[in-house]
Each structure stands twice: as C-alpha cells, then as structure tokens.
Design brief:
endopeptidase fold (from Nostoc punctiforme); two-stranded parallel sheet; 6-stranded antiparallel sheet; 6 helices; alpha+beta
C-alpha cells in the first residue's frame, strides 16, 4: 500500500510539473518566434492580424461550405503552373481559404489535413463561392519545374499553420510557395511567417486570369 501510494504521489507531482512546464515552454517558444520575426509582427498586413480581426467578428476557420453558392468558372484555358484559389463565406484568413497548383490533365496538387499533399480533379473548385485563377508570369520551363517539385512531395504531411521554413510539413499554400521559391520566385506578397491564399492573389508575380465572387480584395 505504501509503495502504491508513493507511486501515485510521484505521478501527481509529475502531472503538476507538466501543467506548470507546458505554459512556460509555450511562452519561451512564442518569445523566440517573436524575436526572430519582429519585422513580421510589425507588418499590419500580416495574416495573423487579418485572422484576429475576423475572429472578433466571429469568423473562425476556413468558412462555411453549407452557405456556399458555388460558381461557374471555366477551367478550359488552364495552363500548367496556374494557381487556383477558392473561398467560402466567413473565412478567417481573408477572401480565399484554399489554393492548388494546376499540373495538367484536369488535375491539381493541393493539401488537406486528412490526406496530405494529394492529386485531385480541379473541378471541385466549382463548389466555392469565391474562386480565382492566377497565372504566374514566368517562363514555361520555370512553371513546369515548380509543378515537378510539387509532385515530388505528393503524400507528404499536412499541417494547417506550416511555417515557411523547412520542407517536411506543408499546407495548401506552402507547397505552392516553396515550389516556385525553388525556381527563384517568391509569391509571398506580405512577407509573413506562413502564406495565406490572399497573398498569392496580391502577388506582383501573378496575373488574374478569371475570378468569380466578390471582386474586392480583402
């Protein structure tokens, strides 16, 4: 009985230590991120501030699929390397919540939490209320190389807030940003810690080919 009581007391003490240690480590991590990225936190256009502003208005996550009205955009003129953006009403990151890169034959490479970086049909972008087709203004060989890079990372892990650094964990925007960054093209128009789809929309490297939904930039 005494030994069992000692074990229980030891476990309780460890649990208490973990409870105290976790927020302390979280504060240290947040401090380290801030020190290394002061210029990002000083940027009012950073996506974190867009998210906080929308959070105050009750917008959380990627928006509501159930209230989407869909769209009738044409995908007939898509070219390899084009970027497709989609968004639902109430998105916390801005106008768009998802991005994919067109790889040809009616398919895109994109990232999802449950399946990672995957190859899918572009036609599912008809379900979004907001949609835009962006063409990167670069030589065709550059765009083909970007597509090949994205394909090489198919089936890799997805993480919603994947920071720009590193090449093992992706989200739907980081894989595209990194694919073009490897070719010397930085599509991040904000200079953020991570990439929001709206950053692609505002990039000086892209031309907006076509879009559906509200035309104002958020």
């Amino acid at each position: 009985m005494k030994d069992q009581k000692k074990k229980l007391n030891k476990r309780d003490n460890l649990n208490k230590l973990n409870i105290l240690l976790f927020p302390f480590l979280a504060i240290l991590l947040a401090g380290a991120i801030y020190i290394d990225n002061r210029e990002v936190f000083a940027n009012p256009q950073a996506s974190m501030y867009t998210y906080l502003e929308n959070l105050q208005e009750g917008r959380i996550g990627y928006g509501s699929e159930s209230t989407s009205i869909g769209n009738h955009i044409s995908f007939e003129g898509l070219e390899t390397g084009d970027i497709i953006l989609g968004g639902y009403p109430g998105c916390a990151y801005g106008r768009f919540s998802h991005a994919a890169i067109y790889v040809g034959n009616g398919n895109v490479i994109e990232g999802y939490l449950d399946s990672g970086i995957t190859l899918n049909s572009v036609e599912h972008f008809w379900d979004y209320s907001q949609v835009a087709i962006l063409r990167v203004e670069a030589p065709q060989e550059v765009k083909i190389a970007a597509v090949q890079y994205a394909k090489q990372n198919e089936q890799d892990m997805f993480f919603p807030l994947a920071f720009k650094g590193g090449d093992r964990i992706w989200n739907c925007t980081k894989i595209i940003w990194q694919a073009y960054m490897m070719q010397g093209i930085d599509l991040d128009s904000v200079g953020d810690l991570w990439i929001a789809p709206d950053s692609f929309y505002a990039s000086p490297w892209v031309k907006i080919i076509e879009e559906r939904g509200a035309l104002n930039r958020q």
